[in-house]
UniProtKB/TrEMBL annotation:
<dbReference type="InterPro" id="IPR002585">
    <property type="entry name" value="Cyt-d_ubiquinol_oxidase_su_1"/>
</dbReference>
<feature type="transmembrane region" description="Helical">
    <location>
        <begin position="23"/>
        <end position="44"/>
    </location>
</feature>
<feature type="transmembrane region" description="Helical">
    <location>
        <begin position="219"/>
        <end position="239"/>
    </location>
</feature>
<keyword id="KW-0249">Electron transport</keyword>
<feature type="transmembrane region" description="Helical">
    <location>
        <begin position="322"/>
        <end position="346"/>
    </location>
</feature>
<keyword id="KW-0472">Membrane</keyword>
<feature type="transmembrane region" description="Helical">
    <location>
        <begin position="127"/>
        <end position="149"/>
    </location>
</feature>
<protein>
    <submittedName>
        <fullName>Cytochrome d ubiquinol oxidase subunit I</fullName>
        <ecNumber>1.10.3.-</ecNumber>
    </submittedName>
</protein>
<feature type="transmembrane region" description="Helical">
    <location>
        <begin position="358"/>
        <end position="379"/>
    </location>
</feature>
<keyword id="KW-0813">Transport</keyword>
<keyword id="KW-0812">Transmembrane</keyword>
<keyword id="KW-0560">Oxidoreductase</keyword>
<feature type="transmembrane region" description="Helical">
    <location>
        <begin position="186"/>
        <end position="207"/>
    </location>
</feature>
<keyword id="KW-1133">Transmembrane helix</keyword>
<feature type="region of interest" description="Disordered">
    <location>
        <begin position="444"/>
        <end position="467"/>
    </location>
</feature>
<feature type="transmembrane region" description="Helical">
    <location>
        <begin position="403"/>
        <end position="431"/>
    </location>
</feature>
<keyword id="KW-0479">Metal-binding</keyword>
Length: 467
């Protein structure tokens, strides 16, 4: 039944499905590992039990997410050999060592200290345990660095030559790793991971505040998450803007698709807020636009010219509709995160951060927002690179293995079924863990007044506050 399907399209769908299922776990793990580092640091500094209790609560969730991320990532490596063997053969001399460095540095570092972090608190001293937590957090960041180096090289290849077999070979490893888009992508992705975790933590804290199951622990989580949203969301928007300017320089067709600019605008391009891209007719139907604003954003001048897709050959254009909408979803979520952060600052100033149920309900609703933004961002990045796997040098249609469509379709169906059962069960288990925040052990902490600074315990607690 799949004989008439395109094997390349099926392979792309399969990789898109597996990478989408995979990326949400590393994005969450990177942020959670750093959050655990902060919690343990605060506990060692203040000796307040609430930080240790939250550390123990989130370390279990981190361990499950980390395990699912490792398993889902291994599957993607096999696809390079099964569905994309030509790509692996041609690009292997460059991307192979980078992937190997990720295993040798980041994965071994994480695996070596993960057991100590999870089970070693009673067996090693507090200093060594904190060091283990630090190494796990560092390992997640190093892992992101190598993976982003690989992806950035595919987006903006540099430092390579070609041998007589048509393979990409490294000439300058510094140029390969620190290619022109790498710093922007790394910063953008790490900040996205921190925001993803912040809104998950904030949603869990808000959920328990609404249910009043553990006011001290819930408020501590919620307050910390809202600080992260208020501080990091505007930084992420600025980082995204810088990333966009870099993309305009090195991948102009991607930005043209993001903006929906089928035509060049020599006297200033409009910002198309919404519309229906019509790639066949080369226009955006029902466009709602603001004149010249795109030129102001991208070129910092109202009358600056912007080239359109009419300067790109039809067979080199990315799928405009997908890139156009995925970009808008990502941006909309980013501004929604900024709105939550600003709202939380206002409530904090008014002394109602712990009692504003509408903010808490909004935080619960925004819990999955980080994952949606990460997926939308990756769709924008990867689909916008089409029709290339290595931008400007190797077409996707030239990267596929000589494998029949029915074989690809069979493995795709198997992946979908297995992933929904295995990772669906894992996600359900994580949600159950999040819903089981233990109650505060001291009745006074549940009954005492809750103020902007935190919960004010009774005299027996020494008047300490949760910030």
């Amino acid at each position: 039944m799949f004989e008439h399907f395109d094997a390349v399209v099926l392979a792309r769908i399969q990789f898109a499905f597996t990478v989408s299922a995979h990326i949400i776990f590393p994005a969450f793990s990177i942020g959670t590992a750093s959050y655990l580092f902060v919690l343990e640091a605060l506990y060692l500094k203040t000796r307040r039990e609430v930080y240790l209790e939250l550390f123990n609560f989130w370390k279990t969730i981190f361990a499950v997410a980390f395990g699912m991320g490792v398993v889902s990532g291994i599957v993607m490596s096999y696809q390079f050999g099964t569905n994309w063997a030509v790509f692996s053969d041609k690009a292997g001399p460059v991307i192979g060592p980078l992937m190997g460095y990720e295993v040798l540095t980041a994965f071994f570092l994480e695996a070596g200290f993960l057991g100590v972090m999870l089970f070693g608190r009673e067996r090693v001293g507090p200093g060594l345990h904190f060091f283990a937590t630090s190494m796990v957090a560092l390992g997640t960041l190093i892992s992101a660095t190598w993976i982003l180096a690989v992806n950035s090289w595919m987006q903006t290849p540099a430092g390579f030559g070609m041998n007589d077999k048509g393979q990409f070979i490294p000439v300058d490893w510094w140029a390969v790793i620190f290619n022109s888009s790498f710093p922007y992508r790394l910063v953008h992705m790490v900040l996205a991971a921190y925001l993803t975790t912040a809104f998950v933590v904030g949603a869990v804290g808000a959920w328990h505040l609404l249910r009043r199951t553990a006011p001290l622990r819930a408020y501590t989580m919620f307050s910390m998450a809202m600080w992260m949203a208020a501080i990091v969301a505007p930084i992420q928007i600025l980082a995204g803007d810088a990333h966009g300017l870099n993309t305009l320089e090195h991948q102009p067709a991607k930005v043209m698709a993001m903006e929906g600019h089928f035509e060049s605008h020599p006297d200033g391009a409009p910002l198309i807020l919404f519309g229906l891209p019509n790639q066949a007719e080369k226009r955006v139907d029902y466009a709602i636009e603001i004149p010249k604003l795109s030129s102001l954003i991208l070129k910092h001048g109202l009358n600056e010219s912007l080239a359109g897709l009419d300067t790109i050959p039809d067979d080199k254009e990315p799928p405009v509709a997908i890139v156009f909408w995925s970009f808008r979803i990502m941006v909309a979520i980013g501004f929604a995160m900024l709105g939550i952060g600003v709202w939380s600052l206002f409530c904090r100033y008014r002394g109602t951060l712990n009692s504003n149920i509408w903010l808490q309900r909004a935080a619960v609703a925004m819990g999955p927002a980080g994952f949606a933004a990460v997926l939308a961002g990756w769709v924008t990045t990867e689909v916008g690179r089409q029709p290339y796997t290595i931008y400007g040098h190797l077409l996707t249609s030239q990267s596929h293995s000589p494998i029949a469509a029915p074989a690809v379709a069979t493995s795709l169906i198997a992946f979908v079924i297995v992933y929904f059962f295995v990772f669906g069960a894992g996600t359900f288990y994580i949600l159950r863990l999040m819903a089981r925040l233990p109650r505060d052990p001291t009745p006074e902490l549940q009954e005492g007044p809750i103020r902007t600074q935190g919960i004010t315990p009774g005299p027996a607690q020494g008047g300490s506050h949760a910030h």
